[in-house]
Amino acid sequence: MSPQYGAASPTLFGFLQSIEPLIHREIRNSNKSSSLPVIVVRVTDEQHLLMRYNSPRKLCFLAEGLIRVVAKYYGETVELSHDKCLHRGDICCELNVIKPAA
Ligand code: HEM
Question: What is the pLDDT of residue 18?
Fold first, then answer.
């Protein structure tokens, strides 16, 4: 819904990689009262992306929903696995975004 951000990334993985360095960081810098999660993204190959999520709010399930909706926006079918989770005592959540082989 924010065309200035969507236009920055023509692909789903590119967009997910841009959240922290472009989007959340800009919001954090311009609005000191905002409370944003720390998100670290690593693309391991064309089909696998790992998102590490950390926030005292523990809104990892919101993050999952956002990823699913963004994937739909890009017309991609993805599987998500949520292997580590703050709610289970892990130090961060790990969300694996997997594009099934065609
Ligand atoms: C898949 C993409 C995204 C994910 C996974 C994500 C994740 C999240 C999560 C989980 C939160 C809740 C706060 C927390 O956990 O501490 C949050 C907050 C927020 N995000 Fe994102 N986000 C995404 C994309 C975006 C985009 C595209 C924008 C703006 C165009 C954005 C702007 C914000 C804002 C304004 C907040 C609230 C800050 C506050 O409460 O003060 N996010 N994000």
Answer: 93
